[in-house]
Specification:
Keywords: Signal. It holds the Pfam family CBM_6. This is CBM6 domain-containing protein. InterPro entries: CBM6 (IPR005084), Cellulose-bd_IV (IPR006584), Galactose-bd-like_sf (IPR008979). The chain has a domain of about 130 residues: Galactose-binding domain-like (Jelly Rolls), CATH 2.60.120.260. The strands form two sheets. Strands 1, 3, 6, 8, 9 and 11 form a six-stranded mixed β-sheet that branches. Strands 2, 4, 5, 7, 10 and 12 form a six-stranded antiparallel β-sheet that branches. A hairpin with an 8-residue loop joins strand 8 and strand 9. By secondary structure, it is of the alpha+beta class.
């Protein structure tokens, strides 16, 4: 068998040089690509962060869900009845809503304050809205002082008009001085409901005869 002839040595050297040249060109091309990429990164600035994902809008709740629970309204309390003067409490004479012929003065009676004085025949005091309630009053008690020795006079209780007939009358006599206080009482016609009370004063002449500090009704 005939052995093929070997190529001359110069042929191997030529092929090796071509291969090295190709590799060098490929490396240079890759280097240029990398250099261009780096230049582009530097010119483009830092990476822009990804946009945040927008949160979905809140779901509006229905009025029934969002409204705060409302407490049941409590029943409204009934308005109290208009107040009046308690007929069975002590009523100070100086608190009269109206008067005729009388004057105030400092009192020396228990509790201090003022009393009504300079009282003579025909004078009166008026007390509005006096409440007797449903159980009738049958008596009146008065706190009086007098310095007369010729028979005294009367304190009369009239309802709703000073011209109406008295429902009761308390005799007044000398107590020993104009500031010597005593309690006196008398029966009255049974009285209920609410009335304007007139305290009227009666005497056979026009002389002053009594001081009055207070009064109260009794069942």
């Amino acid at each position: 068998m005939t052995t093929p002839a070997s190529p001359p040595p110069g042929v191997y050297h030529s092929r090796s040089r071509v291969t090295r040249t190709r590799l060098a060109l490929a490396a240079a091309g890759l280097a240029l690509v990398l250099l261009g990429y780096l230049i582009g990164r530097l010119q483009g600035g830092p990476d822009t962060p990804a946009a945040a994902v927008a949160a979905p809008p809140p779901v509006a709740s229905s009025p029934a869900e969002s409204a705060a629970p409302t407490a049941e309204p409590s029943p409204s309390a009934s308005a109290p009845a208009p107040g009046g003067i308690d007929a069975y409490a002590v009523i100070q004479a100086e608190t009269a809503a109206g008067q005729q012929g009388t004057q105030f003065q400092e009192t020396e009676d228990e509790g201090g304050g003022q009393n009504i004085g300079w009282i003579s025949n025909g004078d009166w005091l008026r007390f509005d809205e006096v409440e007797f309630g449903t159980e009738p009053a049958t008596e009146v008690a008065v706190r009086v002082a007098s310095d007369v020795d010729d028979g005294g006079g009367r304190i009369e209780i009239r309802l709703d008009s000073p011209a109406n007939a008295p429902v009761g009358s308390v005799p007044v006599e000398d107590t020993g001085g104009w500031q010597e206080w005593q309690s006196r009482s008398a029966d009255i016609e049974p009285t209920t409901g609410r009335h304007t009370v007139f305290i009227t004063f009666a005497r056979d002449d026009d002389a002053e005869f009594v001081n009055l500090n207070s009064f109260a009704f009794v069942h």
